[in-house]
Specification:
Elements: E1 10-15, H1 20-32, E2 36-39, H2 50-63, E3 68-73, H3 77-83, E4 91-93, H4 97-107, E5 111-115, H5 121-133, H6 140-157
Helix pairs in contact: 1-5, 2-3, 4-5
Length: 158
């Protein structure tokens, strides 16, 4: 069972001040490829708290079936920690093209986290494009995601 790009034309993007410049460039790139982009901020280089933006994207991913998210901060790590607090969210920090493909194919990640201070613009755009084009391959990987869902349900009951 493959889940393809046709289900995910909507991209929700957010960043803190450490990822603002890269967010703006990725947003332009996505719009040029005709993706529907929702930008939740931030709106400049002035210092802001990353959890607020990670939260907004993660909540929208929960609410909007089939949408995908992009979160950018200095390293991508803080954003991934925030996003992965949300049930059904699978956020991955990616710094290379191979991992971008693998996290979609094997983990069916629905949020990609990038670090503006870690990767350059050219690599970031290749990572985003690779991730968006990759498809979840299911099979044994679906079984593993089912196990993650069970863990989430158990944690909610505690």
């Amino acid at each position: 069972m493959k889940v393809g790009r046709e289900m995910a034309q909507k991209i929700i993007i957010g960043a803190d001040h450490g990822g603002f410049i890269l967010k703006e460039r990725i947003k332009q790139f996505l719009e040029s490829k005709k993706y529907q982009v929702t930008d939740v901020g931030c709106t400049g280089n002035e210092a802001v708290d990353y959890p607020a933006y990670g939260r907004m994207v993660a909540e929208k991913i929960q609410q909007e079936q089939g949408s995908l998210g992009l979160l950018i901060c200095g390293t991508g790590i803080g954003m991934s920690i925030v996003a992965n607090k949300y049930q059904g969210v699978r956020a991955a920090v990616v710094n290379d093209v191979f991992s971008a493909k693998a996290t979609k194919e094997h983990n069916n990640s629905n949020i990609l986290c990038l670090g503006q201070r870690v990767i350059g613009e050219g690599l970031a755009l290749m990572i985003v494009e690779t991730w968006l084009k990759a498809e979840f391959i299911g099979g044994k990987h679906q079984q593993r995601l089912n196990q993650l869902t069970e863990i989430e349900k158990q944690e909610l009951r505690k």
